[in-house]
Amino acid sequence: MGSGVDRSKLPIGGAGSPSSSASSLPGGMVNAAAPPSPLERRIEAAFRTAYKHADATHPVFGRASIGYRAWWQSVVTHTFTLAGVHADTQQVSSSQQQQQLPLPELSDRLVRLFATKEPFTLRPGVHDALSRLAALSPRPVLGVLSNSDPRTRDVIDELGLAGMFDFVMLSYNLGLEKPDPRVFAAAIEAASGVLTRRGQPGTIAAERAVHVGDSLERDVMAAQAAGWIGFKVQYYGDGDDDGGGDKTGLSRPTVESNLDELVRLVEKRGRGE
Fold first, then answer.
1. Does the reported pTM lie above 0.85?
2. What is the DSSP code string of 37-102?
């Protein structure tokens, strides 16, 4: 989910008002709960290949063909095959027990598991940054702009973040994925609708919108191409989400200091600086 070809993530994006900046939390604000083992790393490499194949065969998580559940089930099955795990049953661990499951059942369980908060934990500083952004005056429109399927809404809700966002826009529902500029245009329209409901009608200028993510191509460069401000968050221990390492050439900040910079940026935009 989220960025799809890397650790489980929720890329976040947003758009703001004509008198304030847009704001968002970074893709990668949610990370897999435990560091991967060597076997998990082998499976992750196979997952990248299986994901790319499924995306080429059935784009946007199979929205126009098989649907996201069957799409992900095929990715899981293909992943284990590529990783050299050919047994008819696979061992699955949970907080309660370990059990042997047939691969089709395992695939189904994983699809359902990643609709919950259980595999995820919030990055340090994320909740505080969201609270600080929501407290700014004028209050920016905060939105989720994610290449993911409908399960993302459930995860956001279970993590207790749903009330912090004004809208959630998912590629599966939109039928488009970042870096397509139409995704950012749709986000501007959604954010403008939020302002109208607040009694502040008007069209939001793209140059006053900020998109935050950890993918240089799909988040930062795509946002800039759409006329937005692109803000990249890089965490210690993470490569760039596009798979090529940190391409910015910048020093890698701590999570908290990077999010502090984001809040300051949005605050300045809100003051028209």
1. no
2. PHHHHHHHHHHHHHHHHHHHHSHHHHTTTT-HHHHHHHHHHHHHHHTT---SEEEEE-SS-EEEEE
